[in-house]
Design a protein that fits this description.
Length: 456
């Protein structure tokens, strides 16, 4: 693998060692001492070349990237096909530079001039309209990237340029993810003050969701500074490695200085964005986040239902609900505020209408469900069929009298007068009942009425 000094020497003599036909005759930007002007990154060195009137960022790797070669080729091909205005021309050239007798692969990108994000914000601190337009353009860019299935992977102030026409441009594509390389090993996880803790603290795969957290942090910072320029000085943004939120703030965001300041002094729009940050941080993995701009619409009620439609008063019913993009959810009838997705057992006695109300700054969504409740049934009367006998027996002739018992003390014997039974003239074993339509009615209403009076 070529070392840095060999690369510098080869670029300085580009007329000899540069092997890309499209860059034939290109000149290299030099320092006052005559050596090439360059930036050094973790994987590569970036030089500035000019070919005719076109300026290029020319990248040469100083570390072994054989395992990344296929990845960069696929990124280059995909971005070239999409032709989004946020990306510079990105061309992967095999064997683009001869370095110390070996041909090395290179990447050339359109050289972008403009102000880095922080410099642009500082320049326009007191121009609220320009900063709000920047926030709007940034939001549009986020939607475009999602629609075209691209994540930059390292959105932060150092990788966003505002050009001379106030257009947003992105640089540094080492962390870009496109569909063809999704779920590959991730080598760049982004600047900490812009990333969800789960992306920083664990080994991850490339994902098209990688930008969701940083997009929210950047958008929130721009609109908050536009609303209150004093935040720039209060949080020493110029000299920090972040905008308004530092990596330590994400440990306990609701207790952070920036949260305390914005939640007490900012507009409702800013407070709503803060609540989205809180919800993001309560989500274990950044891969499960949804784009923040999907919260900028009224909430969506996915489900609000009961496991029964009809009950008898006092029976148990289970309420189920699932709501998206709400910052506050409430169910009436004494239930109160609830989470986005949950269930609750209730025992309704009256008022069978339940209403769920979901709110955010962009609207209110409501849904009602009606439960049919019947009173506890009361048996007013009971019809019981009674048997009627074909043969009737007169039992009046049986004379039963009470026994006479002498309970005197020390008497050896009891004197019992046993009852005398008259023998039946009919064999009782042969009697068979015969049912007829005749019924007897037991009326319970008077019994219930009596019980109610006793309870009063």
């Amino acid at each position: 693998m070529p070392n840095k000094s060999d690369i510098i020497n080869a670029v300085k003599n580009s007329d000899i060692f540069l092997k890309i036909p499209e860059l034939k005759g290109a000149t290299v930007k030099l320092k006052p001492d005559g050596s090439p002007f360059f930036y050094t990154g973790g994987f590569n060195m970036v030089f500035q070349l000019t070919e005719k009137s076109q300026e290029w960022a020319f990248r040469v790797w100083h570390t072994n990237i054989n395992h990344l070669k296929d990845r960069f080729q696929k990124i280059s091909q995909y971005l070239s096909k999409q032709k989004l205005p946020y990306f510079a021309d990105f061309i992967y050239d095999e064997s683009g530079l001869l370095v110390n007798g070996e041909l090395a692969d290179t990447i050339r990108m359109e050289w972008l001039d403009g102000l880095l994000l922080k410099d642009f914000i500082e320049k326009n601190l007191n121009n609220k309209g320009i900063l709000l337009k920047l926030a709007e353009d940034f939001l549009t860019m986020c939607k475009d990237l999602h629609n075209h299935k691209i994540s930059h992977g390292d959105l932060q102030h150092g990788n966003i340029i505002i050009d001379g026409e106030n257009k947003i441009r992105l640089i540094d594509y080492d962390s870009v993810c496109v569909p063809d390389i999704e779920e590959q090993e991730e080598y760049v996880t982004g600047l900490k003050g812009y990333q969800h803790p789960s992306r920083i603290n664990s080994k991850n795969k490339t994902s098209l969701n990688a930008d969701y957290f940083s997009e929210l942090i950047i958008y929130l910072s721009i609109v908050a500074i536009a609303e209150n320029p004093k935040l720039w000085e209060d949080f020493q943004v110029k000299d920090s490695e972040f905008l308004l939120c530092g990596e330590d703030d994400f440990t306990d965001f609701s207790q952070s200085k920036i949260y305390n300041d914005l939640s007490h002094n900012a507009s409702q729009e800013i407070k709503d964005l803060l609540n989205i940050v809180v919800e993001y941080l309560s989500t274990p993995s950044y891969r499960d986040l949804e784009p923040f701009f999907t919260y900028l619409i009224p909430p969506k009620i996915i489900q609000f239902s009961m496991d029964k439609e009809v009950i008898i008063r006092g029976q148990k019913v289970t309420l189920l609900w699932n709501v998206n993009k709400a910052l506050e959810i409430e169910i009436d009838n004494g239930i109160g505020k609830v989470n986005h997705k949950d269930k609750k057992e209730i025992y309704p006695n009256q008022n069978p209408i339940y209403k769920l109300t979901a709110r955010n700054s962009y609207g209110i969504s409501e849904q009602e469900i009606v439960l049919r409740i019947f009173p506890t049934p009361i048996i007013e009367s009971l019809k019981v069929p009674m048997p009627d006998f074909e043969s009737k027996i007169n039992l009046n002739s049986i004379n039963i009298t009470s026994p006479k018992i002498d309970v005197s003390i020390n008497l050896p014997d009891f004197n019992l007068n046993l009852p005398q039974f008259t023998a039946s003239s009919v064999d009782l074993q042969k009697i068979r009942p015969k049912y007829k339509p005749k019924v007897s009615i037991f009326n319970f209403s008077k019994i219930y009425e009596y019980i109610r009076k006793r309870e009063l």
